[in-house]
Amino acid sequence: MKIKSSTVLRNDYNTISTLAHESQEPIYITKNGEGDIVLMSVDAFENREQVLQHRAAILEAEFSRLSGEPTYSVDEIRRKLKEKYDNA
Predict the structure, then answer these.
(1) pLDDT per residue over 4-15, tens digit each?
(2) Average pLDDT for residues 51-66, to the nearest whole number?
């Protein structure tokens, strides 16, 4: 975790920008000694969003499984896809 003051951000933006791109981690910016904002590179943010979307999809699938919706093995899916392909 990187922590920098708002003064560093204001006076030396390029250093903070470089740090965000190199570390690929959020940078916590403080104001008057208290947490204020979090900065991160666009790449790091997009990667984080993608991970969160994948987790949400996995949770949705798990909730469906737990609620009794049918599940299929890999072999069953392959067989169904082969049937569709053969019948196309």
Answers:
(1) 999 999 999 999
(2) 96
Q: What are phi and psi of 29, to 5 degrees?
A: -105, 130
Token pair, residue 50, equals: 């993608």
Tokens of 41: 């590179």
Angle at 83 between CA 72 and CA 65, to 5 degrees: 15
User: Identity (one letter) of the amino acid at 29?
Assistant: I
Which string of b and e fits 22-53 if b means at least 16 CB within 10 Å? eeeebbebbeeeeeeeebbbeebeeeeeeeee
Distance CA 82, CA 47 (A): 34
Give the strand order in the sheet containing 34-39. Answer: 2-5, 27-31, 34-39
